[in-house]
Prior knowledge:
450 residues; alpha/beta; seven-stranded mixed sheet; four-stranded parallel sheet; 19 helices; 15 strands; 40% helix
Amino acid sequence: MAERTKYILDEADMPTRWYNVVPDLPEPPPPPLHPGTREPVGPDDLAPLFPQALIAQEVSTERYIDIPEEVLDVYRLWRPSPLFRARRLEKALGTPARIYYKYEGVSPVGSHKPNTAVPQAFYNAAEGVTRLTTETGAGQWGSALAFASATFGLECEVWQVRASYDQKPYRKLMMETFGAKVHPSPSELTESGRAILAADPDSTGSLGIAISEAVEQAAQAENTRYALGSVLNHVLLHQTIIGEEALKQFELAGDTPDVLVGCTGGGSNFGGLAFPFLREKLAGRMDPVIRAVEPAACPTLTRGKYAYDFGDTAGLTPLLKMHTLGHDFIPDPIHAGGLRYHGMSPLISHIYELGLIDAIAIGQEDCFAAGVRFARTEGIIPAPEPTHALAACIQEALRCKETGEEKAILTALCGHAHLDLPAYGAYLAGNISDHALPDEALEKSLAGLP
């Protein structure tokens, strides 16, 4: 019999609950604080931005939360997603390691982002909201929320980081096809955007700036709420369907991961894959090394400070205890636009502080080299973001080649690059360079943090 390449679950086997890792942690994470009082925020503080159902999920201490049937119905358009064994990559590397990847590029917008966009749109629509605002970097989150908004009859307005708005025009067209309005950020449409442009008319933008613009717009309209594509607890909660499916698929494979690797920007893709496996690790049922991989140009976990900071540039959000480069930080315009956020998920930051995961940073030249290698063996051109995880997978597989260890390595291939091909064009033309964050720039950015 031919060796098996993919492990596919039936729709009937799709998980019907999201997993909340908080109850299983040795210590609870620090709460968000009101910037004025420095007291923990309450539901009333979040009500102008989020529907009550999502606020409840944000602070929940329940281990599992049922997925509404209306959300499951939409999930069935692409879920369960396949788990692949990267046999051709293994052969090309000459490694005894077994490499698996959970492929989220099968969703309608080509990434993992609809896993949370769909429930966020559903809960907002159920509470009578008619319009959502959001930010997006590379455009995958904006595309996902535009799709989800169309599904539940909501208007959608997106502020896209200027660097990615210019680099990735087809993402804008995808969002507009789903019915969204898209603006480059910083823009002249908001007070926070105008302030940034007054100081720097050529600003390439940042996710922090785009968040400020979207939050400002949401707070000013009664029928409008804000939707965030990463970072917050409820977002990572929704993404755990990835890891829950992967656990079932590893049972089909008769295998257990020794190393789990995920790219990290805000943390939703990484947390979505890792948290169910972390549950199993904490329960003593398996013991994988869990590794976060971030860009050298935006190294929040590996070089950021663990401190309370704003989630946006203008200081409109609650203070979050997280690994941060400072809310004024504007990263170099690398092609992995989805990883250009100044902070890391508070939940992932807390788990990192507990020593339950490790983290590394990799430059984009090595990442694109890994992406090309993967494309030429496995046949999928990965989005720039997961090339960071693939580069780390390849590093681990080559170490196994040296040591002879037969480790099982798992990663989440969180999206394809069909709308990011100009980035590969730049790499293949020799026009990609690394942007390691200089010490002096980091020190300046961190100077205002407590």
